[in-house]
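Worked Example 4.2. Consider the chain below.
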Amino acid sequence: MAIEKWLAITSVALFAMFAGEMISIYSYVVDPPENAIIDDSWFDSKIFQFISIGVAPAGILAAVPFFMTKQYGSKSIGGLIVAGGVILLVGMIVCYMMLDEIDDNYITNIVRFTPVLFMILSPAVIIVGAYLTKQKKVRPKKEFF
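Applying the procedure from the previous section yields the following structure tokens:
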């Protein structure tokens, strides 16, 4: 496999990891253990940590294979990038649906708007991947003389 395919696979894995991390922290705050001490700064800092560990590198790792293959296109790489965008979208929809169950003491702007932000950004990832799947391979011109 070429390096761009491995980069696309890694970006899908990081998108899935970010969605899983966000769902797990939101579900933790929905039903915290009795002895847990949770303050809003802890919740916000964890969200920032997950963004910097998961979705920021995933976006970079999705952009690099796009730029490497945009001249000739690639159905498999485009499909992987689309899959990463879909995973991100579904994960953020699940997090957004959990917002109603979270105690109002834990709701901050970061908690409320992070799923919305990435729900808005995930169609861009899907469109980039779809562009790669539709791109036609450019044939080199034959020189007869």
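The chain has a mean pLDDT of 89. Residues 40-69 form the longest helix (30 residues). Compare this with Example 4.1 before moving on.
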